[in-house]
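Predict both folds.
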Amino acid sequence: GLEGKIHIVQTKDVAIFAAAERNRLINTAVLDGTTKQVGVRVYVVNSETQVRKTTSGATCATTSSGVLSVDKDCKHVSLTSSEKSASNNVVVDVELAGLQSSFNV
């Protein structure tokens, strides 16, 4: 007969990284009242160096709320007519299962 062994290795998530689908945003919502949204992508790297895209369980925040809005669940960053400040570099902080990252918009 055939014999063999199976080794089961438990992987764990070791890092995350995130980015907006576009990193240059112009808030035209202050001119026409239409909210502009850009998707956010969150990726998880596990101990086997495999990468997967997710937003499930991720949370996002920014201290630059006068410049843009961030969905708490990391689906989008938004520019609305109420955000009238400008910035060349807004930092969005991302957290998922105790792992942290940030990206600039």
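Second protein follows, with its predicted structure tokens after the sequence.
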Amino acid sequence: MAGGRIFKERSQILQQILREGSFLDIFQKFTSATIAAERNQRGNIARRCGTSLFFFVVVSISIMSHSSWCTAGGSGKGVCPFSVALFAGSAFSYLNYVRLRSKSAVSKCSIDEHKRTYIIAGDIGGTNSRFALHRPGQKDPLLVHIYPNEEALKTAPTYHHATLMPFLKKCLAEVDEWKALGEKEVLSQIQIVACLATAGPVTTNNDVFMVNLGENGGSIDGNEIEQCQDGLLSLVVRCKLVNDFVGQGYGVLDLDLDKEVIELLPGSKAKMNDLAPICCVGAGTGLGECFLTKSSLATKLGYECYPSEGGHADYVPRGPLEVELLDYLKHKFSSENRISVERVVSGRGLANVYEFLAQKFPARVDKSVHEEFLNAGDQQGRVIGVNSGTEGSLTQQAVQIMCAAYGSEVGNAALKFIPTGGMFVTGGLAPKNIGMIQGEDSPFMKAYLDKGRMNGLIKSIPIFAVMNEDVGLRGARVCAEREYNAM
């Protein structure tokens, strides 16, 4: 009776497994996921393979127990076909793990000491892709170039063919030491370690889907770039993807605080605590946020940067007109309950704000500016910013609303992280609209400081506007150097 009950229970378990998919499929998914994670997480190979072997042994033992219930529930003679199938599936799955592990090790080449190594840093935003070529250990780039994404992506089959390939060709044509070698020798004597800081959440598979890349979003796959053997792209032996604000975060550590930033509260430099958290919020095509901390047990190791998707937190209106703006945006983006702050605080957000104002106040629309706006494609925000100097114009009002929302969101981040190591306002919109950001009477600072009972805390936090736009590129170089040193 007991044997029959066990047989029935385990039959139900087996049926559940079979309903969810073949056992072999389940195992193959496990091994493939393991390999994908290992592409980004270095560790002891023997330990990882040992873990997989342990998994294999445990499954085998489990399968043998299936054999026992087969005989317990039946005649007790012969071999249970289920256990044969499951054992074969697990064995094949383990061999598949070994095959994939071997393939992963080959595709993720180690540094060839007989070749010259170069670093490529990339800052990949929704509008532009910036690339810089460096020698390892050197901050000054050999070459920097910017590619407009909308134009580059029109005909190329992949992102790396659209931008990285042209940049490599430009290096061959313009970098003296590459020109001296020629393409054939470059292909045999040079290798590249790259880091691309991308505007989106990077997965453990070393890929990213950027919602603001192209018209409908686009993917970048670091592993695919590493494995590509198409001409000069074959030079890339490692391509690490990081969130763009990881790049921004490490980049602010490289700033000259006397020349490259503006204090938004007087005395900010003197207030900085070099053991405290740092926060970075920046609006460009989108809105990004990150924070950096030091370990209290090992401060000599410096800051470690952590990304976030804080730009997709809820937008909160601050007055009656902004409440109408929120309703307008909910309707525009078919969102019943909420809108992300990036829909207002970004280049595209600025375009959204102007659209709202134009439909609410049609008599105030400047027809020539409006026509330019409608024909500007992904540069609509730039059109509004360029024309915002006209007193009393809709374009000026749009920038004021955007900057107030920007200051409010930076203040929210300051409350959450209390970054007495420094709050840095980065991105392309800060230097372009510094007149609306600098000064305690500016729309930005009024909203930033308007935190009720926490106003005193906010005033104690050092805050800076970053005036150059290569911060993400600098940070990507730092990440690429780390990757190179770890290989």
